[in-house]
Amino acid sequence: MNKSERLNDMLQFINNKKTFNLKDLMEKYNISRSTAIRDVQSLELLGMPIYAEQGRNGKYLVLENRILSPIIFTVDEMFAMYFSMLTLEGYKAKPFEYEINNLEEKFKKVLPIQVKENIEKMKGLISLEITNHSNYNPYIQDLIQGIIDENIYQVSYEKNKEKIQLTGQFIKINSKLGQWYAKFYNIDKQKVQTLRCDKILSLEMVKDRTSMRLKYLLSLLGTYHKQENAIHFSIVVNDKGKDLYDKEHYPSMSILKEDEHYVISGYYNMNEEDFISDYILRFGQNIISISPHSLKTLIQSKLKIISLHINNIN
The pTM is what? Predict the structure, then answer.
C-alpha cells in the first residue's frame, strides 16, 4: 500500500473513531512511529479535524464537526457523482439543505481543470431523464429526521379536499413518478398507510406517548398492503409491454418471461379496481391475455365509457 492509498484508508479508519493514538496507526498499517506522525500531519493538511493531546502515547481527538473528512476519489468516481447530482434538478423539495446550484459550484471548485473541461463536454453529450417534481413540500427533511429519531407526530393531512388528523410514526420515504410518498404507521388504526408528502399540511411532535422501534415498523411493510380478500391477477404482454412495465410498476407486482412473452402477476384489493384497470389499460394492444375474467370485464366496461366520452366531445 503506497502513501496515498494508506492516507485514504486512514481517513476512513479515523473518521469512525472519537479518539486514536499513534500505536493504533502503527499496528494497523505496519508503519514506524515517525511515519505515523507524518501521516497524521498530512491528514491535518487535508482538513481532517484532529486535535493532539500531550502524552507519551500520542493521543489524538477527532473533533465533532458537521464537515465530513475529505476522501480521495478517482476521476471516474468524480464523473459518476457529478452526473448523479444533476438528476436532483427535477426535485422541488429535497431531503437536504442546499440547492443543486450551490452543490454544483462547490463540486467544480475542487475539480482539476482537465476534469472540469471533460465534464462540460460530457454535459452536451449525455442527456439524463429527470422526472419533474411539480409539487413542493417543506417537511421532507423533518420527516427523515423524525424517522431516524423514532418520533410520533400529530399530522394534519389533506384527503379528498378535506383536512383530517392522523397520529403516528413515519417509517419510510420514497420518490416515485414525480411525487414524494411516505409510509406512515397510524397508531389509532394500528395499520400502515401511504401518504403523499405534498398533502401534509402540518406536523406537530407528540412527546407524551411511547414510540415504537423503527426496526419493528419496517418489518410491517412487507405485508401491510395486502388484504385478506385481495384478488390475484396476471396479464401476458409482448416485448413492448415489458418495456412499459419497466417504466412503471408497483411493489405488489412482478414479471417473468415465458417463452417469447412476459407474464405480469400481482394482486389488488377490493377498493382498488379503478387503479388496477387504469394501470392495465396503459398496455393497450401490447396485452395478449388477462386473468381473471372479472378484471377483463371491468377493463372492457371502462373502455366503453372512454369511447362514449370521446364520441361526445368536440
Answer: 0.58
Which triple of cell numbers denotes residue 68? 465530513
Find residue 256's DSSP bridge partners.
263
pLDDT tens, residue by residue, 278-293? 999 999 999 999 999 9
Q: Give pLDDT tens digits for 186-232.
A: 999 888 888 999 999 999 999 888 999 999 999 888 777 777 888 99
Q: CB count, 10 Å around CB of 31?
A: 19
Tell how strand 162-176 and strand 152-159 pair up. Answer: antiparallel
Cell numbers standing for residue 260 = 417469447
